[in-house]
Amino acid sequence: MAALFNKRFLLKVVSFISVIRGYNILVLVLAQYLTSMFILAPDKPLREVLFDPNLFFLVLASASAIASGYIINNFYDGGKDLINRPHKTMLDRFVSERTKLSVYFILNLTSIFFASYVSFRTVVFFSLYIFMIWLYSHRIKRLLFLGTLVSTILVITPLFAIFIYYKNFDTVIFVHASFLCILVVMKELLKDLQNLKGDLLQGYRTIPAVYGEGLTKRLLGGLTLLSTIPVYFLIFHFEIGHMDLFFKGALLLMVVFLIVLFFFNVPWQYLLLYNLLKLVIVGGVFGILLIDINTLINRVF
Questions:
Q1: E strand spans, 107-226
Q2: What is the 3-state secondary structure (H, E, C) of 169-202?
Q3: Distance between CA 100 and CA 17 in Å, rounded?
Q4: pLDDT tens across 169-227, in order?
């Protein structure tokens, strides 16, 4: 009996982590801290950035809001996900809808509580952010173009919050952000291609559902070429230390991306491309360490 209870409890824990995309939240937390240390506040000692209480609560507020967003998105997309990802959906259902909604409200309140430590304006910021996540999940994501645009904005908003906190307006930051935005748009389009069957049956007006796979693939190809522009400037016109190695590697992966996109036609094509983009994004997070690798030890002390 105890073994059965432990197994069921473990399944619920795994299910809940699956619902809130725990790995994505971990990457977000790392991205916020590494961006703060090496891009937004490069002149401050690492210890001062790491133990900044305002930054700590901004990161917690972001993580709580994002986790609640994944829950509400899972709630509204239940029917579509059952068609597109039946195995993951069955795993997610080990946690009841009532429990998910209860945790959703708790996480939202927790996010506001963490934000209140920083300032009243931060509370307003995250209140609006939480509302927009709900509005996107409830309505906007079904709308043509607007769904992709709003989804991209919601993904980069937590990093934007850190950007506002440090008030760093260097051009290089906007170039980094433009590259990230292009990758996120591409990732959203690939997700729509993977979910095409469910989107058509559930009435979602995504770009692949309205204009077809062919046009979406050409759009992805154009965005891939567009992504090389910020990469070129970052490598040749800005001082980014050894992070240029990451961007050179990213260019090679973009070539692989184009080859798979236009010359492969297999069932797992879009999943492979989606994971390839995730690899570039996650690699970019850890690649931030290369910016200041020569003085990293000195900054620690």
A1: none
A2: CCHHHHHHHHHHHHHHHHHHHHHHHHCHHHHHHH
A3: 11
A4: 788 888 999 999 999 999 999 999 998 888 887 888 899 999 999 999 999 999 999 99
The pair phi, psi for residue 93, each rounded to 5°, is -80, 0
Which of 174, 187, 204 has its CA nearest to residue 257? 187
Residue 55's nearest CA partner among 70, 65, 41 is 41
Rounded Cα gap, residues 12 and 29, in angstroms:
24
The answer for 241, left when phi > 0, alpha when psi is -120 to 50, beta otherwise, is left
Question: Contact, 208 vs 196, CB < 8 A?
Answer: yes
End-to-end CA distance of the chain: 53
Contacts of 119 (CB under 8 A, 6+ apart): none
Instruction: Please state, in angstroms and rounded to a whole number, the distance separating the CA atoms of residues 61 and 106.
Output: 12
Structural domain spans, the chain: 8-169, 173-301
CATH assignment of 8-169, among 3.40.1080.10, 1.10.357.140, 3.30.70.20, 3.30.1360.40: 1.10.357.140
